[in-house]
Amino acid sequence: MLVTVGLMKSYRISDIVVLLIEGDITELEVDAIVNAANPYLEHGGGVALAIVKKGGYMIQEESREYVRRFGAVPVGGVAVTSAGGLKAKYVIHAVGPVFRDPEGDFKLALAIKSSLDKAEELGLQSIAFPAISTGVYGYPYGRAARIMAEVIKSYTYRNLSKVIVCLYGMEAYREFEKVFDEVMSK
Length: 186
Known about the structure:
Blueprint: E1 3-5, E2 8-13, E3 16-22, E4 32-37, H1 46-55, H2 58-70, E5 78-82, E6 90-95, H3 104-121, E7 126-129, H4 141-154, E8 162-167, H5 170-184
Parallel strand pairs: 3-8, 4-6, 4-7, 7-8
Antiparallel strand pairs: 1-2, 2-3, 5-6
């Protein structure tokens, strides 16, 4: 089933609602927001900086404490912090690959799956993703969208009932929409 409402599109996978939204991920009321992070969890640009600016510096402090205790997060891995002043409960920091990494597609899929796994482990019902690795890491929107759509569609859900993919800007939204329409209709 497919419903279009302005800059939002809805898809269904069994009992799971998948929403594609153009907007500001920091404004969403979800259990967890996924941050497109670097391995050292230094949130100096892109969605990471927006999350810290809106949610508060405590997110950066908790991230640094995580790295002090456990070391850098591997590409494809995740770390969790509180969401500070955001409407979410948690921030799941997912480390995506740099485009042209020979194992990049696998690592991007792993970062998405690891985020879903962490949300399930925490017993969450809703999660919002940005377009991981499409900023400074250089992944083309269409390629990142295909990987994300395929992981979201094939994932085995237990607690989650809503997965949001929140895109910043019309170019990203339209590219993801084109790919999600194709993948979700198969």
